[in-house]
Automatic annotation (TrEMBL):
<feature type="domain" description="Secretion system C-terminal sorting">
    <location>
        <begin position="643"/>
        <end position="711"/>
    </location>
</feature>
<feature type="domain" description="DUF7619">
    <location>
        <begin position="494"/>
        <end position="626"/>
    </location>
</feature>
<dbReference type="InterPro" id="IPR026444">
    <property type="entry name" value="Secre_tail"/>
</dbReference>
<keyword id="KW-0732">Signal</keyword>
<dbReference type="Pfam" id="PF24595">
    <property type="entry name" value="DUF7619"/>
</dbReference>
<dbReference type="Pfam" id="PF18962">
    <property type="entry name" value="Por_Secre_tail"/>
</dbReference>
<protein>
    <submittedName>
        <fullName>Por secretion system C-terminal sorting domain-containing protein</fullName>
    </submittedName>
</protein>
<dbReference type="InterPro" id="IPR055353">
    <property type="entry name" value="DUF7619"/>
</dbReference>
<feature type="signal peptide">
    <location>
        <begin position="1"/>
        <end position="17"/>
    </location>
</feature>
Length: 713
């Protein structure tokens, strides 16, 4: 923990050297009056008197000038006397008179008058001036207090991986003390504050900064602290902190004095390189970049993984110590091999780039493996257009040519357009021909469907979609040549959501196939988002080694720790807020992953994501769940539980026919878990607020579990 104290001292004392060598012919007297606030309510005045004539003066004293100055409490410092007995020509007095004044404001303007008696009983006078003996201006005094600002910060390794990375944060504590009652407002350029306002003589508040990839890249967080205090004396004061460490770089921010937090004394190291496909059998001398290939660095206690970009390049951040075995073969088809199979990296020092850690992937035999994925970009709504992106890519070692076909429910939607333009279209089937899809090349098709209006398409209806890629014959893994799912037609939706395309339930034949998880997000704030990060923990019922990112709306990178701690970062996304550009304020990311081997009845694969927009608190999506379970109108062996009425309108009841108790879980067709609770003898489940359609209720008691289909009318 580091601490920085800022002492702001604004202390006004009007003392200036006067013109003291000027002599006036005849009798003359001069008065300099200076003032300073001792606290918010009291001003101290000092006087300097000079006989600036050529004749001696006697009985010299000071008095208030006017009604405005009548509150001056002027006194002679050598009682019981009340006046200076005499001053010779050129003689000065700086100690005989002083004054106090009670102040109602943080500003004061006062003036006094000096009296003296010249030879022959002639009275001479002079109005005070704050600077010299020969001017007659009031003395102005200003009150500016001492402000003490304390800023503390503490780094939190939220991932627990001993490395500074996205998802970690820095917590801040701000304390401001002033010697008077005030209204505070503080702000920090890159920190989300719990409470920016306060009243009194002290404000203590807390803030948090979620670390971005840009922070990781430079090793620092650049902040700019501003403080405004509206004192009850009627004017504001502003204070600025200075950098935490004098040797740190300082960024250009819209504040006078930005400060910098160093994240760690040791910047993390990284492993980087390129993965290529040996397309010309020359040990990758002229090979093509291998995109979306998983690269894993495994240490003694943690592992770190990422995926290559479109050119086959990758970069993995690792801690400063340990030895890491780096490979590019996880979940690689058995027809492929890697040269080298593994690279050992001994991590030491800081900010070291173990670059040129390259891998050449080759295949001894030619084989075909086409993959297809259909991404619903938005939610289908009656009377509106709905948008889809159909991806197809070559996971094999030979070039492919064939057709991509999409089929939709023509009773719920009509075909709008596609890019590229379709080869054929008939009723509800769209076909595109493709040719020479080289190994590891990916292409996509943008498709628009026009959702019909009621009564054809209603809120809660299901829109069935499917897509298939050929050739299928001879494909090494034909199961992923096609995809199909149901979309729920809605009138309203949450723009930050999670969807499993296969839905809440899969058939036993699907346990060896991929599940597709889609996270959608929207910037509903008041400014553009520079960075967006999606973070989630892959479920234990999923096979982490089969995780494969498919695509996203914007450029992104993947980092995975220990197999299942996933971060997807969209750096420099500059996502506009919805008020400025609603259409461009959305984003998404889709990946696929298989259930774990042995996924069986009762197992539930769940998923949700935390979405970070710049330095704001994360938005947590809904949770989706997929399981392998028979749909049944009967529950356990002896009909222990009964669901009625079904269909239902406002509620249904789970009735226990025995003394058994248990739990229930209500989910929708997309796998989102809506409710969880305990089951007593008769448990009423309120569904009045749900949209019409079908839902699933899973009842669990002891070691038994059964899922029912419930229809909401």
């Amino acid at each position: 923990m580091k601490q920085k104290l800022l002492l702001l001292l604004f202390f006004s004392l009007n003392v200036f050297a006067g013109n003291s060598d000027k002599t006036v012919q005849g009798p003359s007297i001069g008065l300099i009056m200076t003032g300073v606030f001792m606290d918010q309510n009291m001003i101290y005045f000092a006087f300097t008197i000079k006989n600036n004539g050529d004749q001696p003066l006697t009985n010299i004293y000071i008095d208030n000038l006017s009604e405005n100055s009548s509150m001056l409490d002027i006194y002679y410092t050598f009682p019981p006397e009340t006046a200076i007995p005499s001053l010779a020509p050129g003689e000065e007095d700086t100690i005989s008179f002083m004054a106090n004044k009670f102040a109602f404001d943080c500003y004061d303007m006062s003036q006094a008058k000096v009296f003296a008696t010249a030879p022959g009983g002639v009275e001479v006078t002079d109005l005070s001036d704050p600077y010299d003996y020969y001017s007659d201006n009031p003395t102005e005094s200003f009150y500016s207090p001492m402000i003490v600002l304390s800023i503390n910060h503490e780094y939190h390794d939220n991932n627990g991986n001993s490395i500074v990375d996205v998802g970690d944060d820095v917590g801040y504590t701000y304390q401001v003390d002033v010697p008077f009652f005030s209204t505070f407002y503080i702000s920090d350029e890159n920190v989300t504050l719990d409470n920016a306002f306060g009243n009194g003589s002290q404000l203590i508040t807390y803030g948090i900064h979620y670390i971005t990839q840009d922070d990781v890249d430079v090793g620092y967080i650049f902040n700019g602290f501003n403080m405004d205090i509206d004192a009850n004396c009627g004017f504001g004061l502003t204070g600025y902190d200075t950098p935490h460490c004098g040797t740190c770089p300082v960024a250009s921010l819209p504040v006078l004095y930005p400060y910098t937090v160093k994240l760690t004394d040791l910047l993390p190291n990284r492993i980087s390189g390129q993965v290529k496909f040996n397309s010309n059998s020359d040990n990758c001398a002229s090979g093509t970049g291998f995109p979306n290939r998983k690269v894993v660095a495994t240490g003694s206690s943690n592992s770190f993984a990422t995926f290559t970009d479109a050119s086959g390049n990758y970069e993995i951040y690792i801690p400063n110590t340990d030895t890491y075995q780096t490979t590019a073969t996880e979940n690689l088809n058995v027809n492929f091999s890697s040269d080298p199979a593994s690279v050992s990296i001994v991590s030491s020092g800081e900010d070291v780039n173990y670059d040129n850690t390259d891998f050449c992937i080759g295949s001894a035999t030619g084989f075909a493996n086409l993959s297809v994925a259909l991404v619903p970009i938005d939610h289908p709504r009656p009377g509106f257009s709905s948008h889809y992106r159909l991806y197809f890519w070559n996971n094999g070692s030979t070039a492919l040519s064939g057709d991509i076909t999409m089929v939709f429910d023509q009773n719920k939607a009509g075909f709008g357009a596609s890019t590229p333009v379709q080869t054929t279209f008939a009723i509800n089937t769209i076909t595109w021909a493709y040719a020479n899809l080289i190994p590891f090349e990916e292409r996509f098709i943008d498709i628009t469907l026009n959702i019909l209006t009621p009564p054809s398409a209603n809120d809660g209806d299901l829109l069935h979609l499917s897509a298939t890629g050929t050739p299928v014959a001879g494909d090494a893994f034909p199961a992923d040549n096609s995809v199909s799912f149901d979309q729920t037609i809605v009138n309203a939706f949450d723009p930050n959501d999670k969807t499993v395309l296969e839905g809440a339930f899969i058939e036993p034949t699907q346990t060896g196939s991929y599940l597709h998880y889609l996270t959608r997000f929207q910037n509903t704030g008041s400014a553009s988002a520079t960075t967006v990060v999606l973070k989630e923990t892959l479920d234990a019922d999923l096979d982490w080694t089969t995780f494969e990112p498919i695509a996203a709306s914007h450029d992104y990178s993947i980092q995975i720790k220990n197999g299942n701690e996933l971060s997807a970062t969209f750096p420099n996304i500059d996502l506009p807020h919805s008020s400025a550009n609603e259409a461009a304020s959305h984003g998404w990311m889709i990946y696929r992953i298989k259930p774990k081997p042995g996924f069986t009845y009762g197992d539930i694969a769940q998923s949700k994501a935390d979405i970070y927009f710049d330095f704001n608190l994360p938005i947590t999506t809904n949770e989706v769940a997929t399981q392998l379970a028979p749909l049944s109108v009967k529950s356990f062996a002896q009909n222990d539980f009964v669901i009625y009425p079904n269909p239902a309108q406002n509620y249904f009841i789970i009735k226990s026919n025995t003394a058994q108790t248990g739990t229930y879980e209500l989910s929708d067709a997309r796998g989102r878990i809506l409710k969880r609770d305990l089951i007593q003898s008769n448990t009423q489940v309120d569904i009045a607020e749900l949209q019409c359609g079908y839902y699933f209720i899973t009842v669990e008691s002891g070691n038994a579990k059964t899922t029912y289909k419930v229809i909401k009318q």
